[in-house]
């Protein structure tokens, strides 16, 4: 995974919901690092909540536990209260997701990804965009991440990202986000509707994640 990562500015986040989530997180960020879990106020981002996960990071990111999962992310199977390894399918796709979360959990910067998935039998999301935002832990609360996830809805799928096991995994974009974000604003219903009905048009594949 390390050989595909790049550094980019916030405008590399190619989705209005995830861009708004990044701006919210950046507004809460401390001068010396990421915000605390206690800094988050869901009342400020009601339109974003269907696309958001809140996870605990244990054992240096090797064990991820889902605390809160938005309704759109929980489509097909709700992993709330479960560990990541128990929530994803076994095989190359499960290993890919576990490694992606582990990598994000060990960084201080935001991580943005776009992955395209190919299937031979079952049909699942063809493209998923994710944004990983670190949160500082305390003596009582472990390190956490605020995660945004947007799935391709251009075609009807038989299984969710928690159920399908794609045989092909292509990385379109994997970036650590650096730099100042634009001013925070309230995401409009129009923005969210645009994202939820978006037909993704991925750019040509530059790298491939090999199983």
Structure write-up:
This protein is of the alpha+beta class and 211 residues long. Helix content is 18%, strand content 27%. The chain has helices spanning 16-28, 84-87, 92-105, 189-196; strands spanning 6-8, 52-58, 63-69, 110-118, 127-135, 144-151, 168-177, 207-209.
In short:
The protein is an alpha+beta fold and 211 residues long. 18% of the residues lie in helices and 27% in strands. Strands 1, 2, 3, 4, 5, 6, 7 and 8 form an eight-stranded mixed beta sheet that branches.
What layout of secondary structure does this protein have?
Layout: E1 6-8, H1 16-28, E2 52-58, E3 63-69, H2 84-87, H3 92-105, E4 110-118, E5 127-135, E6 144-151, E7 168-177, H4 189-196, E8 207-209
Parallel strand pairs: 1-7
Antiparallel strand pairs: 2-3, 2-6, 4-5, 4-7, 5-6, 7-8
Distance between the terminal alpha carbons, to the nearest Å? 11 Å
Which whole number gives the mean pLDDT? 83
Strand content: 25-35%
Low-confidence stretches: 182-211
Number of helices: 4
Give the beta-strand count: 8
Which structural category fits the helices and strands?
alpha+beta
What Rg, in angstroms, do the CA atoms define? 16 Å
The ordered string of helix (H) and strand (E) elements is EHEEHHEEEEHE
**Spatial shape:** globular
State the share of residues found in helices, binned by percent.
10-25%
- Main pleated-sheet profile: 8 strands, mixed
List key phrases describing it.
211 residues, alpha+beta, 8 strands, globular
């Amino acid at each position: 995974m390390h050989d595909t990562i790049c550094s980019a500015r916030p405008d590399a986040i190619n989705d209005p919901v995830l861009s708004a989530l990044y701006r919210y997180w950046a507004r809460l960020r401390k001068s010396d690092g990421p915000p605390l879990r206690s800094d988050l106020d869901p009342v400020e981002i009601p339109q974003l909540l269907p696309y958001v996960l809140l996870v605990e990071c244990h054992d240096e990111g090797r064990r991820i536990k889902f605390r809160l999962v938005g309704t759109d992310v929980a489509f097909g199977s709700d992993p709330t209260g479960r560990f990541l390894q128990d929530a994803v399918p076994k095989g190359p796709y499960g290993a890919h997701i576990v490694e992606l979360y582990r990598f994000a959990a060990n960084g201080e910067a935001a991580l943005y990804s776009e992955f395209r998935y190919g299937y031979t039998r079952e049909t699942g999301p063809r493209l998923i965009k994710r944004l990983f935002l670190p949160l500082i832990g305390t003596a009582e609360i472990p390190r956490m991440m605020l995660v945004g996830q947007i799935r391709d809805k251009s075609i009807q799928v038989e299984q969710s990202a928690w159920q399908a096991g794609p045989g092909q995994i292509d990385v379109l974009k994997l970036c650590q986000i650096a730099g100042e974000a634009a001013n925070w604003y309230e995401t409009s219903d129009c923005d969210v509707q645009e994202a939820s009905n978006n037909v993704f048009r991925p750019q040509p594949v530059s790298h491939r994640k090999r199983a």
